[in-house]
Amino acid sequence: MAKKRTVEERSIDPASQEMLIRADELGLSTAFSRADDMVPCNIGGAGMCCKLCGMGPCRLTKEGQTGVCGATIDTIQARNLIRAIAAGAAAHSDHGRDMAFTLKAVANGQTEGYRIRDVAKLRTVAANYDIPIEGRSPEEIANDLADLYIAQFGQQKGTIAPIIRAPEKRQKLWREVGVLPRGVDREVVEALHRTHIGDDQDAEHILHHAIRTSLADGWGGSLIATDISDILFGTPAPVLGQANLGVLKDDMVNVVVHGHEPTLSEMIVAASQDPEIIAYAQKAGAKGVNLSGICCTANEILMRQGIPAAGNFLQQELAILTGAVEAMVVDVQCIMQALVGLAGNFHTQIITTSPKVKIKGALHIQFDEHKALTIAKQILKTAIDNYKNRGETQIPDHHEDLVPGFSHEYINYMLGGSYRASFRPLNDAIMAGRIRGVAAIVGCNNPRSQHDYLHSYVTKEMLKNDVLVVETGCSAIAMAKQGFLLGDKGLEHVGPGLREILETVGIPPVLHMGSCVDNSRILTVLTQMVAEGGLGDDIDQIPAVGLAPEWMSEKALSIGTYCVASGAYVIFGGANPVSGMPDRVADSDIVLRYLSQGWENLYGGKMEFVTAPEEMVRRTLAHIDRKRADLGLPAYDPLRFGQSGDARMFQLEQLPLAERQAALYGIAGD
Ligand code: BF8
After folding, report:
1. Considering only CA atoms, which of 260, 279, 304, 150 is closest in space to residue 517?
2. Which of 128, 249, 418, 646 is least enclosed, having the fewest CB within 10 Å?
3. Is 236 in the pocket of ligand 1 (CB under 6 A)?
């Protein structure tokens, strides 16, 4: 058993700390305590266990040892890694597939409650693929787009269509290296086939296909999911929201939606505002229904509707511990089985809704887009009926306002307005050195590391060093809870050059770009920065880094891999799934080296696992500075900018009165 950590060691978030104390008082376990109770397997954790056939599992713990079949450590590590990437790609892409089916049903009038909200985005996306748009109804266009997108999953030959949205040079590179994905499902299936006993046994060859599989996610399934979510529910733009457990309300029926797909949660939002539902809640003695979200479902409805986020991944159990949640409605991904057992100590009803996800002991109300609004109302009535069973509650008094909604379309608009929407000002600011570079900080929480700490540390260091920060997933929620997604809060952490940009444009220190499938938006932004000119002709030349400081899911590995394939340097914090045993470094180094140097030689991007947060920051800044130098841009100089506006005033405020007067008015104080 590992050491039992204090609540402060478990999380930096005060709301979470309060609920962890409550869990201890009530004698209830959480992912935090279970992580303390169970030391991770150091052989499996290092990628050195092979359980792909019945001759094993084989644990390779000695120099030169192989599995029963003769598989070497590098083969085993590569196979384990590609299987994880394939699972992550499958999860994102299956989400995209379901969105495509929903779009098809909406286009044909077969759904209840949905409509095409963003016709402009529909037309823009369709035009990418030469789908005729002039003189046609949105439904006709949507029908063709849905058919095209559905076909990407089962396509057997050729190249998936959305690849044409990558920079041309990158497409050419992928073609030459032979990693253009043929069909989304085909690449995932092939990853499984190649890793069956007796197939692909060359680590580099296995990892070559890992790139292809991940591209089918990033430029395929995930991009499709984001496109269709925007078309059906609206492309995000800034909106006021709130985050943390304090968004739960004592006098209302609290319904927490948790998971990833926006289809049901958007309908629950609509149903919660229905007069019939409000009246039903009031009859039950509540003021109404209070909706909030956990994980990426939270991000989907926060980005578009401003519905509050109750928390990120590690707060799903903590929401139940408040005793104030009538129903937690889950769909797919990142849902802990422990929820049902924990909810048994309170009145909370866990409701599963996806045909793909049932949890023993949970109530299953299956979602069907053809009767979406009816089902959403049924779910809400179930929650309202449960209000009378509520016992003692303890809702932490912690929540922060935030402004999410930074889709690439909005970033384009905000930098140039309606007349000159453009990425030009961003590129110019990077070229001048006012912005040093860009960091995309994404991904999960992991109870093996202090909840939210690494997100917080890395984000603050980036801002301090004039690096523009965009975030998605649980990382964005972590920083939202700390006030970094609001205009003025967090500004004191921002370097002078970047601060001038934030103040001029009127944006928060951290730009929230959405859920994890919305990492495809980051690919689009990088592509638009390339197209704008001045930062090279491909993504690998941009001074940008991707970081997943607290990663834990297989989806994060898929995201990291498609970002590498797209030219980015990606740093994972925490666990290294291909680390090898400490005393076997020379032997098991092959895979690690290939992910870094091998992939960098091929794609200009690389993947590294770095435990120490200071080292994550050092490597990120070094990479950004190297890319700046390669582009012939001036070296970053923190003293060159920030001599105007609020940033200048902030500097002056730090000075003693006499020096301040001298600087401001040219007079000596007494
Ligand atoms: O897809 S960041 S813990 S919620 S996997 Fe899961 Fe990780 Fe959160 Fe969203 Ni992404």
Report:
1. 260
2. 418
3. no
